[in-house]
Amino acid sequence: MLGALAIGVPVGLGLGLLSVRILGLFFTLPPPILTVPVGTLAGFAVLILVTSAAALGAALAAVNRVNPATTLREP
User: Fold this and answer.
1) Which pTM does this prediction carry?
2) Are the beta carbons of 5 and 46 closer than 8 angstroms?
């Protein structure tokens, strides 16, 4: 999960910067300087990590409730 964030955030920022530069050629207003909303990005990263941890916990709880012997005996 951290790897996806480490790759996705810089790629997204780079594509945003590229879009601003390219669209600046078509419009007369100067594009704003790229601003990185650090608080929003940090909140998003925390939300992703908390959601992933909750999903992992729910999956592990579901797996622990199943008896593997009865599952393996079923045809």
Assistant:
1) 0.53
2) no
Residues 57 and 28 in one domain: no
* Contacting residues for 49 by C-beta, under 8 A, at least 6 apart: 1, 2
Rounded to 5 degrees, φ, ψ at 7 are: -90, -40
pLDDT digits (tens), the chain, 75 positions = 778 878 888 898 899 888 888 887 787 666 667 778 889 989 998 999 999 999 999 999 988 888 877 777 766
Q: What is the dihedral of CA 18, 20, 22, 26, to 10 degrees?
A: 170
Are 42 and 14 contained in the same domain?
A: no
Do 30 and 62 lie in one domain? The reply is no
Number of domains in the chain: 2
Residue 51 is part of which domain span?
A: 37-75
